[in-house]
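Cross-posted from the bioinformatics board.
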Amino acid sequence: MKSVLEWQIATVQAICQETHRVKTFTLALPDWSPHRAGQHYDIRLTAPDGYQAQRSYSIASEPERRGELDLTVERIENGEVSTYLHDVLIPGDQIEVRGPIGGYFVWEASMAGPLLLVAGGSGIVPLMVMIRHRRAARSTVPTRLLYSSRTAEDIIYAEEMDQLVATQPGLGIYHTLTRAQPHGWTGYARRIDVDMLREVATPLGSALRSYVCGPTSLVESVADQLTALGLPADRIRTERFGPTGGTL
Amino acid sequence: MDSQSTDQNADLMLDGNAVAGLLQEIFATEVTIAPVQCASCGQEGEVGTLLAFTQGPGVVLRCPACERIILRVVQTPQHIYLDARGAAFLCIPKPQ
Amino acid sequence: MPKGFISRGFQGRRVQSDDQSRIPPGQHETADFPVLSAGPTPRIVLEAWTFEINGLVKKPIHWTWDEFRKLKSQPYTVDIHCVTKWTKLGTQWEGVSVDTLLEYVELEPNAHFVTAFCDGGYTTNLPLEDITGGKAFIAYNYDGRPLPREHGGPARLVVPHLYFWKSAKWVRGFTFTEQDELGFWESLGYHRRGDPWKEQRYRGD
């Protein structure tokens, strides 16, 4: 892994609408280097008068997809960078990026232990990469994802999740919808609490390691709940996202 | 996720992962996995677990146990100022 | 490093200002009120809150919240400028002028500077001239309502003619000093005075 981070100019290859508020941007980089699931890239925008804005977004593509980079970004009303990415950027445009960045909130298929992934909102992005990497590495490590969204329309990567559960051994994905549920919904319908975590996590056994990502309030309450369930602190890894849906 | 927090300041608090790029500029290596010990309370953990306040004139990283300051960073056009007095130590792995 | 790269069509979260003469150099107007902090919002209990003036004064003084609220107060409409480059025009506050507070103390002859201290440990330093003559106040209302906690409530210092890091949130008092004792950001590369019209952002500017 490179030690010295350099900014480089990436080119937008494709833009995919994931949900009404979320897009995935596929970027080609002049100097792509392999990343690890959970890492992120920094994006920097510069206006003609030199004004700059910078944000971090988790890498959405698994490391096995070499040579290009996906970033999944939620559009935040009045968000300075996300509105530019959503409303202005088109394939062919260029954007300054640097990365891959991170080391703590990272999972590799070579790491032992059953895996519990807990996501709120756009916190799903780094955890989905872990699942995509798990598939690409043909790992069968018992893995469960608990994913909290407001409504069914807000579930990012919904179809891919269904496919993965159907085809990947040892993978379970559980949804909770906190604001509204569609007719006939059989998933959870409330904010994540210790009972929900216990139900999802218990079959994984006590040697599990967990990754929690989402808004600060969710991350903190889930981390406390996992601790209450007896999970030692060194098996809980957290990444807080700001209200802008990425790290600020 | 419905975040009904009335304290925007709490919602804006992140962690060491959010400033990984800036810290890598300073230390020329990935440091979110680096153990750091709080000089105030002795708690030891990875830099990625520190509470991060990124929205002000500089970055402040605080101990998740006692909330005292561990690191402060200010970026000016030409320099980076680092105050690490809040860290008893920062243990950075050598590149192998 | 790619210098000079411009992002096509990017202007940022900036409002086109009608009155450029009120925007200091390098600043842009914003319609929001960004929340900036160095730490978690302190938990403050009004029954235990005091505003204290100490240091180089003949006799230290403090007011409880109830006493403080009985002091002469007035409305203020001021422009504010944050060193992170946003400017907000016409912000409305209500509070107590620092001049009013200083009527209750007698300063020592060598009390040239003040350090404002706050819940949460934040400090900022100012010369006496920058807080007197109507230039500074302790605000407890913003926009007609009690100052929200995330913006410094119950009370913050407001010094609109200097960069807003000097307008200390969760202020609890002043310590008068002989020397200029650099505060939280001033000791880490920011300018000791911070005049936005002279663009005094950083040490050495």
